[in-house]
Prior knowledge:
single chain; globular
Amino acid sequence: MHGLVPAAGRGTRLRPLTDEQPKGLVDVGDKPLLEHVFETLEPHVEAYVVVIGYRGGQIRDRFGEALDGRPISYVEQPDARGLADAVHRAESLVDGPFLQLNGDNVLRGNVGEVLDRHREREADATLLVDRVSEERARRGGVLELDGDEVVDLVEKPAEPPSRLATTGCFAFSPRIFEACRAIEPSERGEYELTDAVRWLLERDGTVETVRFGGWRVNVNTAEDIDRAEVRL
Length: 232
């Protein structure tokens, strides 16, 4: 199974740390941010695919063609056109179901449970989800539920339908690539992964959730780096 890592790009809120390097190479603790992502995926995958953009050559140079015996492939996303666009670009390198972890997450938790649920239910998408504050729910992908069933997924809603948010960790079947090709850009001009999952829902796709157990820090600011280092 592949682990897909859409690597973080410019990281403008982390300047000046990202003036000369991509966000994924910013040190968190004693290693680059992306290395923490690889470590989280390592027990569950046989190979990595990394989607690179801003100064992506530096990521190639840092990690090369393998890490701890697991091959690394790279695909380029020249323009920041959204997470669904990044996933779509990896289609030719991914064979079968795959795990995805966004490249700006330091996450320690029940990733294996996501994979187990995905296989057991033969799902099209399995989302690791967490209950967050209403403020945080306005800044990411949020689920709308009917009981335990996912009926919709919205990105950055002004009025969140719930406080259950995605965490940047997913398991997908190859059907997600069809969804990424089918959707239109959002009002922000980006191809949103939440819209791709909604496309699956609207076509009777199987979308499962696993409640997050553990801790995570989405690294966007210097303060986030400090918080992650304390947890590490």
